Amino acid sequence: MSEQSVNIKSFGPIKNVVLPIYDIIIFNGRQSSGKSTIAKVVYLFKSLPDIISQLIVSDRNLLQDFDKKLVITVRNQILAMFGTTKHFNDFEIILTYGEQKFIKIVKDYNSGHARVTYSKELKDALKEVANSSEIFWKSSANESINNFNAFYISRAYFFNEIHEKISKIFDEQREALYVPAGRSLVSTLSGELRNIDSYNFDSLMKDFVQKILHYRDRFSKNLDEIIEDKKRLTANPIDFEKVSAAKKLITDIIQGEYRYENGEEKLMLDKETYVKIKFSSSGQQEALWILNLLFLQILDNKKSFMVFEEPESHLYPEAQYAIVKFIALFFSNTENQGIITTHSPYVMAALNTLLLAGQAKDKNAEKIKRIINKQFWIDISRVSAYFVENGEIKSILDNETNLIDPYYIDSASSAINEDFDALLELGGANVPQ
């Protein structure tokens, strides 16, 4: 486990949460308990390094009001993700990236807006990178006029250098992706996605749509052709075993393949037969872009952090198990990290099954492989799991079994079974004795 952590106090539904950042974080709990709020704060934590990197490479007068620009960058993200904080109680969020490197966000007593403070160590490190940016823009001013090609090459090198420096400062090299709940709406509006700004969506849904617009042209071909294109166009290694497993899971879950042709989104049932995405089932619509994004992340072998909100939405239990396997396949690249939020006992049971497989000992490993592909096994040392309730989190990992406590999987079923048994005892509803 790294030194990274997120502390949240009195923010929205959250009373007090201290969350160490593990590779795989699982949140279970009732609706409106605060799972998404915590997930969004962690996403803010993970996405800020890239946003700050973009600020540094794009602002040619960066050192002018540099401290203020750093503050506004965070404040704008808070506003975009959570709206105004004026109606919030006095809150505190601390994003800790390492020893003495943190960002503190509290409610300003006068304005009600978020007041942002960077630790001295973090601010000094960022200012050093900003100085190098200032030097680059000044030295390249004439070059951009006299030799555009040389300027273009040096600018690309400069952007990459800045990104690497920021990644080192924050100890964060992953692309951050948020897969929000309610994503079937994106499929319903498939023909109008380029007009996304005209809809009153929150920033995370808009970012999600922008990712879809960025990637969907790659799906003008079938999955095998996409894989072949990748083989031809990259010298980077491709894990074909994982890619093959991903391809099979897609067809198992949505019973077809996604295709984007001539501005139209389709679900190909076979080579000729298709259903327009907006007329496909709600389960297919909800799962579609989780699957597509995961497939590309695995094929491109990217380092990523992904938030999966309610991956089970509208899926049959067997398909829920399959989508958990797909997410586990993504996590099998140990550089990847992410969060799963769920209400589903089937998702929790599926995670427990893969955690149990991950405990395989040498003598049983080969037998377990025949039951569950090793690519789906989950290493407990990378996992934290919590039940979110009353604004706080409670670990639900059993230290003795190294599994999720069955109580948090079976509690809903237990309540139903208790009522059912009570009815049987009464002989009610004409139940035969």
From TrEMBL:
Where is the Endonuclease GajA/Old nuclease/RecF-like AAA domain positioned along the sequence? 4-347
Taxonomic superkingdom: Bacteria
Task: Name the Gene3D superfamilies for this protein.
Answer: P-loop containing nucleotide triphosphate hydrolases
Entry protein name: Endonuclease GajA/Old nuclease/RecF-like AAA domain-containing protein
Taxon lineage: Bacteria, Pseudomonadati, Spirochaetota, Spirochaetia, Spirochaetales
